[in-house]
Amino acid sequence: MNIFSLSLEEFEKEIDKVLEGISPEELLDELKKYGLKTKGGKEMREIKFRAKSVKTNEWVYGSLLRDEIQKKYYIVDNESGVGKEVDENTIGQYTSLKDKNGVKIYKGDILKYSDEDTAIVVFNEKYSYFMVKPIQDFYFDSDVLGHTIEYNQVEVIGNIYDNSELLKGGD
Q1: What are the residue ranges of helices labelled H in the chain?
Q2: 128 or 44, which is more confident?
Q3: Which of 31, 50, 72, 88 could bond to 67 as cystine, CB 3.0-4.6 Å?
Q4: Structure pTM?
């Protein structure tokens, strides 16, 4: 079933079916598996970015800022408050998901599904969700990142900026 083809009423009915018989506590426990954090009694997803520093070419992590006047991007370290100018072409948001080893997954990461199957984490602008784009020809039941992680033991093996050799498809 393609949830994007459903009307709002049909979508709400499908959600009700899924939630039927699940207690609020069980639902909260399930949501926490996907990286939700509690802040002030409310469940929140960690919003974090990474990008390469313009000066050092090293990865920096934190909050993303854009200087509208100079048209530059900065990542501000959430602990120190120090901002560094970054290459806008390398900016990737944290998906709030982790791989089988506990490594945080960002937009632009390359995931390994099996010995032959790899995919890139991308953001679907039209529908606003993180998805996977296979590098080789292989089939996913769903391209939604959260679904593919739930049913597969994925591993971050690199990213599209530092590991271009991993972007080559199988022979």
Answers
A1: 8-19, 24-32, 145-151
A2: 128
A3: 72
A4: 0.71
